[in-house]
Design a protein that fits this description.
- The chain has four domains: about 325 residues, TIM Barrel (Alpha-Beta Barrel), CATH 3.20.20.80; about 40 residues, no CATH class; about 220 residues, Rossmann fold; about 90 residues, Golgi alpha-mannosidase II (Immunoglobulin-like), CATH 2.60.40.1180.
- Helix 8 packs antiparallel against helix 14, helix 11 packs parallel to helix 12 and helix 15 packs across helix 19.
- It is α/β, with parallel strands linked by helices and about 725 residues long.
- Helices cover about 30% and strands about 20% of the residues.
- Strands 1-2-5-8-9-10-11-12 form an eight-stranded parallel β-barrel, surrounded by four helices. It has an eight-stranded mixed β-sheet with strand order 14-13-15-16-22-21-20-18, with helices on both faces. A five-stranded antiparallel β-sheet has the order 24-25-30-27-28, covered by helices on one side.
């Protein structure tokens, strides 16, 4: 079996756990045969089974691993082997209780996964042994295509002695041992929190200083990146040149993948791996919108500056309420590919018969029988395996002209200074809600975007015609200067409330807000409050609707009382008897560009309209923008230089529209039956058929939860 460090085809697969099979049941050959019959070409194993691989210290048994590798090799299936370090074995917790993370809620108890202290010397010692032994054992096996290091790694809110001791050493290094400088940087005179001897450094568990806590969060995120780099370094000592290393990064969780991960700096941590991997879980059935899939994919692609990535986990049947309607599993799979994924892998193959995730169901249910989800996965797998298909939808490159700047520091700060109340009370929207307000609006507009960290270089900023900073609370002075120059030199900047408030240590700037940018935005403000029955009044545009607002739009969570300069266009003011003299949304020309300020949280229709107007004013005309509300459009350039256009109908209704692109139909709309199979038969005249030549502007049709992929030159 030949593999490459970068897969040369779309990886389509599932996690597989021979260890979890009911006692006495041997399904290995049956499962491999069933996988091949639906086009599965890769499986992921071992990441959860340290206790099975090493039943006692230094006592190893890789029989399950060997069985699966040998069977996969016989059936032509590649394998990603996971280092099994994210769920510690019972003997390790018993021998070294300190491997369990101390958190503000107390020490973690054994049982759940991901309860360990990733800087614990005992944990590191035993983890290194199992990694070296496992990877050394499997590296030469021809079925092994790559490795996953750890699993959904985070710092697990650890405040252990080891973590805090390392943090103090970090602070000593950052401030050169100067406690006065540290006290000043974090404002530690407040409530007598100042530290005047390193040996007096307090326990961080009950710390109330957001600046010091933010630095602690930043340090712990750095430990995640260091931990992954440490694991990757060990694996690379054994891995063949044709094997890759990945990790399945995940996101903020709201019962599904939602926003920026609080416990990992994705941009820094992804440096450890050859290919970024992600877990993307999302609402299903009538709640399927495509937004979580696109958000996760765009973030994963951005982690390594536009490189392709792997969806290491996504749902098959998933939790109750996510059982895909006919056509949805196929729609979801191509939605991942449309963002630049080179692989889609389900969690998991078979549904587990014991313990916590018994009802997080895989492709097969508890009876192991073929079912509609399994059969629909076969529709996808066989399509991707068709000659000429995988190469046309894999390795897609994006040329997006819009970027969203995201910041872990701002996320941490706004969790402690909540947008609506200013206190860490959990009330009102948080940072990720504002990020998703912006992202979801762009998605609805069919405006694709990248993500950038809040230390992106000036040359990177200049790749984009429009940059959006949602609630960029913490910002370095250097990055602010880069944004000034970006706008001055012709860029277009849209910033929301609570941007440019504080420095990188969450210390609020002591000049007029927004810091060092009042001339760029042509406005300033000194006060803000929670709105109560505050509407928006469109102003300053020839056509009031061109502002993107309607008069029944309201303000939510916060209103900044913006004073606009005389030469600033006021797009909207507040419709309120007390606040009516203040601006809500402004735009100001600066140099060759312009900067727009949104001083309140808009509802979804208003945010979509306002950003749509900003996109147009920046001179952008994305291919699918005119189809907003009808069909979702995603694009990329494949290895052959073809423009690949994905058309998605995230609804149960049939939609008709004029094609935004021309070319050959690579993936045609299909009707999927309740049994999970393609329904043969005649189609309407506007339905696309495989290998049809489509002309831009041609009238097309997509049925319920339907999709099509068109590839063509230019």
């Amino acid at each position: 079996m030949t593999t490459m460090k970068k897969p040369d085809h779309v990886l389509y697969g599932a996690a597989y756990y021979d260890e979890y099979m009911p006692s006495g049941l041997d399904r290995l050959e049956t499962d491999m045969t069933m996988m091949r019959s639906i086009g599965i070409n890769v499986i992921r194993i071992a990441e959860s089974t340290w206790g099975t691989c090493e039943s006692q210290p230094g006592v190893f048994d890789f029989s399950h691993v060997d069985r699966v590798l040998d069977a996969a090799s016989r059936h032509g299936i590649d394998v990603i082997v996971g280092t099994p370090t994210y769920a510690v074995p019972t003997w390790l917790a018993a021998m070294h209780p300190d491997v369990m993370a101390d958190t503000p809620r107390g020490r973690g108890s054994y049982g759940p996964r991901q309860t360990m202290d990733i800087v614990s010397p005992a944990y590191r010692m035993h983890a290194e042994r199992v990694i070296r032994t496992l990877v050394g054992h499997v590296a030469s096996h021809p079925a092994v295509a790559g490795y996953q290091i750890d699993n959904e790694t985070k710092y697990y809110d650890c405040v252990s002695h080891d973590m805090q001791a390392l943090f103090v050493k970090h602070l000593q290094g950052r401030f050169g041992g100067d406690l006065g400088a540290m006290n000043a940087a974090f404002g530690l005179d407040y409530w007598s929190n100042r530290v005047d001897a390193w040996e007096d450094f307090p326990d961080m568990t009950a710390c109330v200083n957001a600046s010091l806590l933010g630095e602690f969060d930043r340090f712990r995120r750095a430990q995640v990146a260091s931990f992954l780099a440490w694991q990757a370094g060990i694996v690379r000592e054994y891995a063949r040149a044709d094997q890759f290393i990945t990790q399945n990064f995940d996101f903020d969780w709201r019962g599904h993948s939602y926003g920026v991960q609080p416990y990992v700096d994705h941009f820094k941590a992804a440096g450890a791996v050859d290919i970024a991997g992600v877990d993307i879980y999302h609402p299903g059935e009538d709640d399927l919108t495509g937004k979580e899939i696109a958000f996760g994919g765009d973030m994963a692609r951005s982690m390594k500056d536009g490189a392709n990535y792997l969806v290491v986990e996504t749902q098959a049947q998933g939790q109750p309420g996510w059982l895909p309607y006919p056509g949805q599993l196929r729609l979801q799979a191509y939605s991942h590919l449309a963002s630049g994924a080179d692989g889609v892998m389900y969690w998991h193959w078979h549904s587990i018969h014991h313990s916590f995730e018994t009802y997080w169901k895989g492709l097969l249910g508890h009876d192991f029988e073929p079912n509609p989800t399994y059969r629909e996965a076969g529709v996808v797998g066989r399509e991707i395996a068709r000659p000429g298909v995988s190469s046309r939808v894999a390795h897609l490159r994006k040329a997006n002209r819009v970027a969203i700047v995201v910041s872990n520091a701002s996320l941490s700060a706004l969790d402690r200074f909540r947008i609506e109340t200013g206190f860490p009370d959990g009330v009102g929207p948080d940072y990720n809600d504002i990020v998703r307000d912006v992202y979801d609006a762009l998605f609805d507009l069919n405006v694709e975007c990248d993500f950038l960290p809040a230390d992106a270089a000036a040359a990177v900023l200049r790749r984009y015609d429009l940059i959006v900073t949602p609630a960029l609370y913490c910002t370095s002075g250097e990055f602010i200067e880069e944004l000034r120059d970006y706008v001055h030199d012709g860029g277009h900047l849209v910033s929301t409330f609570r941007s440019f408030v504080a420095d990188g240590d969450a210390g609020v700037w002591h000049d007029r807000a927004p810091h060092r940018l009042t001339d760029v935005f042509g406005m300033s403000y000194g006060q803000f409050t929670r709105p109560r029955d505050v509407g928006l009044r469109p102003t300053g545009m020839d056509d009031p609707h061109d502002s993107g607002l309607v008069r029944d739009s309201g303000s939510n969570a916060i209103i900044e009382l913006v004073n606009a300069d005389d030469d600033t266009t006021v797009i909207a003011s507040y419709d309120h008897y007390a606040w009516g003299d203040y601006s809500a949304i402004t735009r100001h020309a600066f140099g060759r560009g312009w900067a727009q300020w949104i001083g309140t949280r808009l509802d979804a229709p208003a945010m979509t309209a306002v950003l749509g107007q900003a996109v147009r004013s920046a001179g952008l005309r994305p291919t699918g923008m005119g189809l907003s509300g009808t069909v979702s459009v995603r694009e990329g350039i494949n290895g052959a230089g073809e423009k690949v256009t994905f058309l998605f109908n995230y609804s149960a209704r049939t939609v008709r529209f004029d094609s935004p692109a021309g070319g050959e139909v690579v993936i045609a709309p299909e009707t999927i039956s309740p049994s999970g199979e393609v329904v043969p038969g005649p189609r309407s005249g506007s339905a696309m058929r495989l290998a049809d030549a489509v002309v831009r502007g041609e009238r097309l049709e997509l049925g319920s939860w339907g999709l099509a992929v068109i590839a063509g030159k230019g």
